[in-house]
Specification:
Length: 157
């Protein structure tokens, strides 16, 4: 008998969601997650398995509204989201978006974008400007927040 998405542990749901994508998208997403996890050890990861995309929000506690980053997997690319990106100093103009709050960087063609000094500065700045700090010694948690019954294909046709 096959396990349903609800029968999976949160960690397995996260892994299974990432596994639906092409090898390049998987590798880029895993590199983005590793980068953010290194900045926020002990953070909570919020999984949203939506119709259009697979989203992992990352924040210092169990409140999604306190999230600092998101990693968004689409069939053709991965976005690294900065939840409060509109307030960040971005002299190189790397952040994309025009909303009141959220900005992102497209990780194209791969995760090497994460190694750019300007991107590293934006990541550090996002953590520094957050109003909420991680609790010392906190362990990483994964919470599945939403799973859409109907989803677009996760790989390009």
């Amino acid at each position: 008998m096959a396990k349903t998405a609800n029968a999976l542990t949160p960690a397995r749901h996260l892994a299974a969601g990432i596994a639906k994508f092409s090898p390049g998208i998987r590798a880029t997403a895993k590199a983005a997650l590793a980068t953010v996890r290194a900045l926020l050890p002990g953070a909570t990861e919020f999984v949203y398995d939506n119709y259009n995309a697979f989203v992992i929000g990352i924040g210092p506690n169990d409140r999604p509204s306190d999230a600092i980053f998101s990693v968004v997997l689409n069939p053709g690319h991965v976005n690294l989201g900065f939840i409060q990106g509109a307030i960040l100093d971005d002299p190189d103009g790397l952040l994309v978006g025009s909303g009141n709050q959220f900005r992102h960087i497209k990780l194209i063609p791969d995760a090497s974008v994460l190694e750019q000094p300007a991107v590293r500065e934006l990541l550090a700045q996002a953590v520094e400007t957050s109003d909420v700090r991680l609790e010392p010694g906190r362990r990483r948690r994964i919470m599945v927040r939403a799973v859409s019954a109907k989803q677009r294909p996760r790989r390009r046709c």
